[in-house]
Amino acid sequence: MKTSYAFSFVLIVLLAATTPTWANDLRAEMEAANSQWLAAYNTLNGAAFAAMYTKDAMCLPPSAQPVVGAEAIGQFWTDRIKGGNRKNHTFEIVSIHRDGKYAYQVARWTLDLVNDKGETTKMAGNTVRIFERQPNGKWLTKVHIFNSY
């Protein structure tokens, strides 16, 4: 009986010790995914977006029809940034959660919108991205929705 209690205690201690590590690892992976996405956006590298989404991904922009598929989403972002008037895009993670091969991230975003006169307007909003872990361990976006306020 004592062995059973000892085993249970050790199992509980191990689970408690690994949960924060797992959460920290997920946060680091989400920060890395954000950095990759922001690098593409802020350097106007539209060609990089498609590789960050699953083949069957869906992007749900505000007041627009859904954009479906990695290639179409890549083209959506390419078209959105090609004018070069959207600068300094950022993400601030609010929360992250994981369930098996899926994780989701809630974040706030900001960017500077520059008009033809060179005047800057600060834009902001919220975004939710659902990620799917690929067999190679990489997280790709499966669903991406965002708004502005």
Which properties best describe this structure?
149 residues; 6 strands; six-stranded mixed beta sheet; Nuclear Transport Factor 2, Chain: A; 40% strand; 36% helix; 2 helices; alpha+beta
Describe this structure in words.
The protein is an alpha+beta fold. It has one domain (2-146): Nuclear Transport Factor 2, Chain: A, CATH 3.10.450. It contains two helices and six strands, in the order H-E-E-H-E-E-E-E. It has helices at 2-42, 70-81; strands at 53-60, 67-68, 86-99, 102-114, 120-133, 139-146. It has a six-stranded mixed beta sheet, covered by helices on one side. A hairpin with a 2-residue loop joins strand 3 (86-99) and strand 4. It is globular, with a radius of gyration of 19 Å. Mean pLDDT is 90; it is low at 17-21.
Q: What composes the largest sheet?
A: 6 strands, mixed
CATH fold category name = Nuclear Transport Factor 2, Chain: A
Number of helices: 2
The spatial strand order of the largest sheet comes to 2-1-6-5-4-3
| Shape, per Cα inertia axes | globular
> In what range is the share of β-strand residues?
35-45%
**Number of domains in the coordinates?**
1
Write a brief caption for the model.
This protein has 149 residues and is of the alpha+beta class. Helix content is 36%, strand content 40%.
